[in-house]
Amino acid sequence: MCGIVGYAGKEQCADILIDALSKLEYRGYDSAGIAVFENGVIKTEKSKGKLADLKDKLAAENSKPEGCVGIGHTRWATHGEPSDVNSHPHGNANVTIVHNGIIENYKEIKDFLLKKGYNFDSETDTETVAKLLDYFYEGNPLETIIKVISEVRGSYALGILFKDFPDKIFAVRKESPLLIGLGKTSNFIASDMTALLKYTRNYYLLEANEIAVISSENVEIFDTHKNPVAKEVNVANWDADAAEKGGYEHFMLKEIHEQPTAIKTTISPRINAGMPYLEESGLNMEDLKKYRKIFIVACGTAMHAGIVGKYIIEKMARVEVTVDIASEFRYRDPILTSEDLVIVISQSGETADTLAALRLSKEAGAKTMAVVNVKGSSIAREADIVIYTHAGPEISVASTKAYTVQLSIMYLLAFELAYAKGRISKERCEQYIADFVKIPDIIEDVIKSSEKSCQFAASKLMNADSLLYIGRGLDYALSMEGSLKLKEISYIHSEAYAAGELKHGTISLVTSEMPVVAVATQSDLFEKTVSNIKEVKARGAKVTLICKESDNVDEDVADYLVKLPVIDDVFMPILASVPLQLIAYYTSVLKGCDVDKPRNLAKSVTVE
Ligand code: AGP
């Protein structure tokens, strides 16, 4: 989704703004622009396409703005197609803004302003906010912003330049993320800290409708009554390299390789004397035991982590778990009571539907817990209990390490709950933990050992128009993620299906033109899945099979094999996720797709 940056300092800022925007490219965008105070005048340059197109335009027209205060934006089109004119910044000579979010009542505002004689160049909702700021402005930016935010409905993070204040950026947010970076002789705004790691690690989180006034020397924050607000300085512990490719061809491959470390960092603080220990996150096991039901609510990959969570929590702790897609949950009028626990899972912590589901659950009186990767994100701030995953920044749109750390938390929760409810003994729980801590090293080996076979499998899948992923039980839960991974980055249609359900309709699709990826890592279901594989092979499908080293696979069962080390079946999804990620990655590479920034997708989905 859109990315915002801003700089107020002592250096020429056009290149700084573009560099910082480049760190937000992963969020997904289709146009970019900057506005800089040049000799007291706001100079705006923008272009459809990538940042490289903007840079080319600035070079070709020799139009790079000169000045030390400015704002920048990458736009992910919502209102109006990607075009030069719809790109941000928007405004006029008096006030110019960049915006992330959606203004729901922009039509009303536009009609009002048209009657007042304003003209509009773009189709965007953002331009109405810029012109409304201009309309209300009487010399005091703070008062103007307060008036405007009382009129607009929807979500917004705004970076604002007022012509009369050429040394300042103004900023305000509601729902959409925005933080204030604190440098020594410069200060910043940004949608997330990855944009600023090169310049500073210190930042303020801006709460809803707090207004920031930022100059090179000073940052002041006010509430909507113009009272100053004291803020706590946060320190980002991600280093600058974390947001760079570090020698890998793509962020996705780097992030696949980072999984052993990410899992270690996520689980180590949650293990105490050989037992799971989630209490440090504010979780009270006595309370947890009492919940009638657990709801897990999330989107995409995070929701798939929830499905694995459901299988293992129900199996081990015998607590009923329902998994919901957040965009459905929020409108399906779920039956929630104060006896329920709602777990939301989100890498970014800003996904609009997941955030709405969290709020709805709180209103209904349920206890809420967030499993989140981004510190200080909206979901993290609003949930009753937060368990942070420690994946570090995930830049590739296709989620990999965020998924395996989310799975890791699901495991710890299942073990701890199962033990607390007396479903497993202390010894069994300790054994699970002892096995779990070995997994990062095993994953390291799996990445190395399965790379070639995954490349080979990818070369066989890349020309397919459509694919099926099949599995049973935990393997089915994992297949959903494998299928999503492949389709989002290689643009090949694929569907995950419960292997035993194929014969109830879907098998009619199977021909020699439809390859099948089968996951069969669960000993008790292996033979049954093999029978389903034989059914698709009998219809001509070529099968890639992911199973354990110890499995005897007859020659006629699989065309391509990826074998995994043998560990407790319950942990196999976390191992098997690696070849599924690699198959998707290499298919995308072989097809020449934009691996890290697949078309139409955004990393952080901050609109409904
Ligand atoms: C998966 O690769 C996607 N990037 C997507 O499905 C993602 O998991 C989903 O949009 C949820 O994002 P979140 O974890 O930031 O809430």
Q: Would you give an account of this structure?
A:
- The structure is a single chain.
- This protein is 36% helix and 22% strand.
- The protein has 18 helices and 26 strands.
- Strand 12 (211-214) and strand 13 (219-222) form a beta hairpin.
- Helix 3 (106-115) crosses helix 4 (126-136).
- The longest helix is centred in the last third of the chain and has 23 residues, at 439-461.
- It starts with a strand and ends in an 18-residue tail after the last helix.
- The relative contact order is 0.09.
- Bound molecules: 2-deoxy-2-amino glucitol-6-phosphate.
- 2-deoxy-2-amino glucitol-6-phosphate is lined by residues 299-302, 346-348, 351, 354, 397-399, 488, 604-605.
Characteristic key phrases:
18 helices, 6-stranded antiparallel sheet, binds 2-deoxy-2-amino glucitol-6-phosphate, 8-stranded antiparallel sheet, 608 residues, alpha/beta, 36% helix
Task: Provide a quick synopsis of the model.
The chain has 608 residues and is an alpha/beta fold.
Major sheet description: 8 strands, antiparallel
Would you count the extended β strands for me? 26
The neighbouring-strand order within the major sheet is: 3-2-4-1-10-9-11-14
Which structural class fits the helix and strand makeup? Answer: alpha/beta
Oligomer: single chain
Helix fraction bin? 25-40%
Number of helices: 18
Computed Rg: 25 Å
Question: Residue-averaged pLDDT, rounded?
Answer: 94
Strand content: 15-25%
Unreliable stretches, pLDDT < 50, 5 or more residues?
A: none
Shape: globular
The kinds of small molecule bound in this structure are: 2-deoxy-2-amino glucitol-6-phosphate
Question: What is the terminal-to-terminal distance?
Answer: 11 Å
